[in-house]
Design a protein that fits this description.
Layout (H helix, E strand, L loop, with lengths): L6 E8 L7 H4 L19 H4 L24 E3 L12 H9 L3 E4 L4 H9 L3 E4 L2 H7 L6 E6 L4 E4 L7 E2 L4 H9 L3 H6 L2 H14 L8
Parallel strand pairs: 1-2, 2-3, 3-4
Antiparallel strand pairs: 1-5, 5-6, 6-7
Length: about 210
């Protein structure tokens, strides 16, 4: 279960790179357990810090810059989240405070992991993303998942639509993962088993 996401307003930090893979999002050396907790410190560790294994901030990295403090939206380039299927990449982004990632395309598995963990991935054309990246300055963005639109504070009169599948939208707006969604039908499932057991007792035999 995640916090439902219907509307979100936040500062967008801009990471102008293509092919940001999951090992760059959360290097393997930073994954010390299978828990979802404690991963934010290792987010983009290879870029956020001056040396591997150290915690001296790299002042040139976008998330270390004062104007991006508290950023909850990340804007990047093509094929964001490519590489391995590690779900830790999404967990690290979310624990850091990122709720929305905007890119021109995503790694397929990463995209699915976002949906299942309450992080909204928005795909937009390169030209649209370029509008946000003017001078790489931070920008405040209003995201409306119910209406599937976003608006930049720089251009408040320009409404930008985005696409998202109906199933993914439901999971995000209701704060569900697939298991939690299934459990919403628990009464119907239990009723089916109760009625089915007398009809097919051999199916339920422990032997």
């Amino acid at each position: 279960m995640s916090e439902p996401l219907t509307q979100h307003r936040g500062i967008a930090a801009i990471l102008p790179r293509d092919n940001v893979d999951t090992d760059q999002i959360i290097p393997s050396r930073e994954m010390k357990s299978v828990s979802r907790d404690g991963l934010a410190d290792g987010l983009f560790a290879g870029w956020r810090y001056l040396a591997p294994g150290a915690r001296d901030p790299n002042p040139d990295f976008v998330l270390n810059q004062t104007e991006n403090t508290g950023a909850t939206i990340l804007i990047s380039g093509e094929n964001f989240g490519c590489g391995s299927s590690r779900e830790h990449a999404v967990w690290a982004l979310k624990e850091f405070g990122i709720r929305v990632v905007i890119a021109s395309s995503f790694g397929e598995i990463f995209h699915g992991n976002c949906i299942r963990n309450g992080l909204l991935p928005i795909s937009l054309p390169k030209e649209t993303i370029a509008r946000f990246a003017v001078e790489l300055a931070p920008v405040e963005i209003q995201v409306d998942l119910e209406q599937q639109t976003l608006v930049s504070a720089r251009q408040p009169d320009v409404i930008i639509p985005f696409e998202i599948g109906a199933f993914a939208k439901r999971l995000l707006t209701e704060g569900l993962d697939p298991i939690a969604l299934t459990l919403k039908s628990r009464e119907k499932i239990e009723a089916f088993f109760e009625a089915d057991a007398p009809r097919r007792p051999w199916v339920y035999s422990a032997g």
